[in-house]
Amino acid sequence: MKAQNKSKENFNFPKDRKTNIAVLVYDGVEIVDTGGPMDVFIKANNWNGNYNIYTVSASADKSTLMDGGTFNMLSKYSINDAPQADILIIPGTSPEIVHKVSADHKMMNWIVKQNEKTIMTMSVCTGGLILANTGLLDGRSATTHHWSLDELRSHPKIKVQETTRFVVDGKFLTGAGVTSGIDVALQAIEIIHGKDVADDLALGMVYDRYNTMEFLPKK
């Protein structure tokens, strides 16, 4: 199974302005988790999209040291001055860093506050654990990286999905890990613009959006 879709939301995106897409970043954030979804929306802008895509740093100085210490990103905003997002994307990281960032009450409160007015809230990989730690996924179906499913199960109110690349439940879209962030973003494009547009974008990215999770070892 590729995806579980339980969305009954009416996604009413603004027609009189650009849709704000905020990508939350923090020290140690995974590069593909971050860049994959952003690239989908950037390419959607090249098609006929109307997206204002920006990063939001958890640090006040807007500086983020990416996964592996590979490069330092300077975000457009920090959580102190970021505008309200229409779509909020939370990328993942290693489990150890998940625990560290989840203890950042200011960042976690910012996620909760932003979510009050988002049209979509998305996570990639262990970003789903960060989202779960806010309590926002309680009562929802969700997924995360297959190595972190047990930790997601530690939240008894979340209906954990194990064999899918992403899950849509209401306004929440959660991806299974790393490259599945591209799937999540393409699914958002499909919801907003239709399947043909999402498929065309995937074709341009040379990306097989109809892949499955069947490669995982059988338990």
TrEMBL record:
Pfam entry (one) = DJ-1_PfpI
Please state every residue range assigned to the domain named DJ-1/PfpI: 21-190
Q: Which residues cross the membrane?
A: none
What processes in GO biological process is this protein linked to?
Answer: regulation of DNA-templated transcription
The record's listing under CDD domains reads: GATase1_PfpI_2
UniProt-recorded name of the protein: DJ-1/PfpI domain-containing protein
Q: Which organism is it from?
A: Chryseobacterium aquaticum
Q: What is the lineage of its organism?
A: Bacteria, Pseudomonadati, Bacteroidota, Flavobacteriia, Flavobacteriales
